[in-house]
Design a protein that fits this description.
Blueprint lengths: L3 H5 L3 H27 L7 H23 L4 H31 L9 H21 L5 H29 L6 H34 L2
Helix pairs in contact: 2-3, 2-4, 2-5, 3-4, 4-7, 5-6, 5-7, 6-7
Length: 209
């Protein structure tokens, strides 16, 4: 594989920033997991907001650096696409947190534990894939990670199907059903955002292999 570092020129900075962005995304999901585990009626979204702000700041730095450092047009698009995909993870996590703050009295935190476990695994896959970029990874190694991501997404989809069966069974209070549907959908989107970031990394490696 052609070294992406050589193509980016002074790109150690980009790799560091993208890795930092992936870690912020992971931290946001871990913060949400803690919120669900520890919530006792008092919901604090502070950690989620911090993670999103950190991600936004990193995305802005990447945009500024792209103006200063020479890269080919294709590589510029790749960096911007990955930065955007990573930013969408904590943004979606924070949106879930905001909705959960409104609806937490209607649901139980444990209802979301299976989805959260998958989201945590998916975030770790994203961190590993982004970290691999600076090491000129083999296509098969990236594919193995992306296959893991697809497997996680498949598990998440099956969970949602089960949740929908429960919601539309007619045995649930309508307001509770609406709240659960909204929150399940948002948490599914968090996992989808991780998948999107993994797909961008795979495409970058494929194009430069």
């Amino acid at each position: 594989m052609i070294s992406l570092a050589k193509l980016f020129g002074k790109s150690d900075r980009f790799f560091e920033l993208l890795a930092s962005s992936a870690k912020s995304a992971h931290q946001s999901i871990e913060a949400l997991a803690r919120l669900l585990q520890e919530s006792n009626g008092d919901i604090s979204l502070a950690d989620l907001a911090v993670a999103r702000r950190n991600e936004k700041k990193t995305a802005e730095i990447i945009s500024e650096e792209l103006v200063k450092v020479f890269v080919t047009a294709l590589d510029r698009e790749d960096i911007e696409a990955l930065s955007k995909a990573l930013y969408r993870i904590p943004k979606t996590v924070e949106k879930f947190g905001e909705r959960y703050e409104i609806m937490h009295h209607l649901v139980k935190a444990k209802d979301f534990a299976p989805q959260m476990a998958i989201a945590q695994e998916a975030a770790l896959v994203v961190v590993r894939m982004v970290d691999m970029l600076s090491k000129s990874p083999r296509l098969e190694d990236i594919k193995a990670e992306n296959d893991k991501m697809q497997e996680l997404e498949g598990r998440a989809d099956q969970l949602v199907v089960g949740y929908l069966k429960e919601i539309y069974s007619g045995s649930m209070d309508p307001i509770e059903a609406m709240a659960k549907r909204d929150l399940y959908d948002l948490l599914e989107k968090v996992i989808d955002r991780c998948r999107d970031a993994g797909n961008v990394v795979s495409q970058i490696v494929l194009k430069n292999s």
